[in-house]
Structure formats: structure tokens, C-alpha cells
Amino acid sequence: MKKIYIILGVFIIGTVIWGGYYQLNGMTTEGYFNIEENTMLAENGKYYLFLEEQKIEVTEDLFKQIRVNHQYHIKYSWNKLGNNKGKIEDIDLDS
Description:
Keywords: Membrane, Transmembrane, Transmembrane helix. The chain has helices spanning about 1-25, 60-65; strands at about 25-35, 40-45, 45-50, 55-60, 70-80, 85-95. It is an alpha+beta fold. Strands 1-5-6-4-3-2 form a six-stranded mixed sheet. Strand 3 (about 45-50) and strand 4 (about 55-60) form a beta hairpin.
């Protein structure tokens, strides 16, 4: 019975450490980006922008509002340990 508690304790501690490490690798990127045809992708009902080697998921409505060959101020979050996917936080047309 004692072995089970030891194994369970090690598992819980490992999970907490891994979760903390993953959270510490979260990044937020903000800047001005020129949107071109090759930076926009629609596949399997999902919509993405490719920004600085990151695949950023956007909503369908936002995807349809984005105009090609325009500059936008974009803020997105992503994780260095992830698979180069991110989430858009803010986007504004640069005027």
C-alpha cells in the first residue's frame, strides 16, 4: 500500500512540475504585420494566419474581414513547447 502512495505522490509532483514548466514557456507576441495571400489559410472549417512561423487560429468572421495587402497591429499568444500554434488576442487595422 505504501508503494502506491509513493508512486501516486511522484506522479502528482511530476504533473505539477510539468504544468508549471509548460506555463512558463507561454509567449505573447505583438507587432505590425502585412497580411498577404500566403499568410492566410482555411482548412477543415478552421481559419489561420501564419505570422513569424506561428499558425494563429482566428474566427471565420475575423478571417473574412481581414483584407489582403494591408497592415495590421496584431497581438497573439503561443507556447514554445507547442506545435507552433497560437491564439489571436487582438487585431486592429493600422491606419
